[in-house]
Design brief:
424 residues; globular; disordered C terminus; single chain; mainly alpha
Length: 424
């Protein structure tokens, strides 16, 4: 009998994705305010800024597998992911609010302490919050659920962009509002997402498609050892492709607002329009990604996302002033980035079981963060060299090229939804 009942519970995915809005808020604080605060506020160099971002990401990279593995093993009354989400959310909101004291009376070291504490607490939330969606979603629908997850996360970033548009460099208002948003998202999760009850309600369909959760299978080493050789190659290929894509994007995103201010003479508040263009184009592409992947396969869709990003970087590299062409380049980057951000994790989940969701999520996030370490760090040195800001887009374009080379390694995790719907 055809499996016609496999359908995404959209309302449920939205509820469990709301905590991603808090993570999106922090990511945009990192992307769109830190470069202004450190370089233009505290008078530091691009290299210093890149080094701070790299250090924070290296620290969280070390912690992510720990948090992910612990959340796989956790058997708390409210759920295995919930303690990490609640602790991280409440502490991050408090520390981000505290950081404004060191902006109003500029004090670099205490501000950086707050920044690193926020990074650590979001790191605690991230693998648990990200794993929650595949925990509660049948594997074949992971890409569709990931679309909703990414949209909600993007809304958090878009909210920060709007705050910048209205309040310019008044970071006291921006940071306090962002902290309040993170707090409210965490409170919503506390009252609206009973993790264990939701798992119990779907236990039959989750057992059929995801397998049973085995507490003994929460080691990355054990998981990878048990994978067949072909799947190991695909698993490594997806992580490598993800790393290069993230390296290229974060090299670009770490400095493109300063690029607009210094090269194009834009006001800082007006640069939010550039970010809004990226978000809008990304929103459109996110909505279409799952449908494209279901029809053409995730692997081919991933290739298309890299092509969009490369085209955007190359177009921006030959643009000498702000105008229609530069906006088009940002639209292309936004489309490619949003498509790419949806696909790698569902592909990894397709090759693993329910007992390793947290650790797989952590490894995936580590590959993202490694790109976020290397990209801004190398870009910072290039921008401080004689090449200046002109090196930004050529460097990003060159960084995305290795991602194309990893595509032939990927031969698993490429499920197409209609293959599942047509099961007998």
């Amino acid at each position: 009998m055809a499996n016609a009942k496999l359908k995404l519970n959209t309302a449920l995915v939205v509820r469990i994705s709301v905590i991603q809005l808090a993570i999106g808020v922090w990511d945009e604080i990192l992307n769109s305010t830190l470069q202004n605060v450190l370089v233009l506020g505290f008078g530091k160099t691009e290299s210093f800024k890149g080094g701070i971002i790299a250090a924070s990401q290296l620290l969280t990279m070390l912690l992510l597998p720990v948090w992910g593995s612990l959340s796989d093993r956790c058997r708390a009354t409210r759920g295995r992911r919930t303690p990490f989400i609640l602790t991280g959310g409440f502490v991050c909101a408090a520390v981000l609010a505290l950081s404004v004291l060191f902006l109003e009376k500029p004090s670099l070291v205490p501000f950086l302490v707050c920044f690193f504490l926020c990074a650590i607490t979001v790191c605690m939330m991230n693998p648990a919050a990200t794993a929650l969606v595949p925990d509660l979603t049948p594997k074949p629908l992971n890409a569709n659920a990931s679309v909703i997850n990414r949209i909600v996360c993007s809304l958090g970033g878009a909210w920060v962009v709007l705050l910048i548009f209205f309040f310019d460099t008044d970071f006291t208002v921006i940071y306090l509002t962002a902290a309040g948003t993170i707090l409210n998202c965490t409170l919503f999760y506390l009252f609206a997402v009973p993790e264990n009850r939701l798992l119990q309600q779907q236990k039959d369909i989750l057992a059929k498609y995801n397998g049973t959760t085995d507490i003994t299978q929460t080691s990355l080493r054990v998981m990878f050892r048990n994978l067949p050789t072909g799947k190991k190659r695909s698993f490594a290929g997806i992580l490598a492709a993800n790393f290069f894509a993230k390296l290229a994007y974060y090299a670009f995103s770490s400095a493109y607002l300063n690029y607009a201010v210094t090269q194009w003479g834009m006001k800082y508040a007006h640069t939010s329009l550039l970010t809004i263009a990226i978000y809008l184009s990304g929103l459109v592409s996110i909505l279409l990604t799952a449908k494209i992947a279901a029809k053409w396969g995730r692997k081919r869709t991933l290739f298309i996302s890299y092509a969009f990003m490369l085209a955007g970087f190359l177009l921006a590299a030959v643009t000498s002033h702000f105008g229609v062409v530069s906006v088009l380049s940002l639209l292309l980057i936004g489309i490619g980035w949003s498509m790419e951000s949806v696909l790698p994790l569902p592909m990894l989940m397709e090759m693993t079981d329910a007992g390793t969701v947290g650790i797989v999520t952590s490894v995936y996030t580590d590959s993202c963060k490694l790109g976020r370490v290397v990209g801004p760090f190398l870009a910072g040195f290039l921008l401080d060299s004689r090449l200046g800001y002109k090196a930004l887009y050529p460097f990003a374009a060159g960084s995305i090229l290795p991602a194309f080379a990893t595509i032939p390694l990927i031969r698993h995790g490429n499920v197409q939804l209609q293959e599942v719907q047509n099961e007998k």
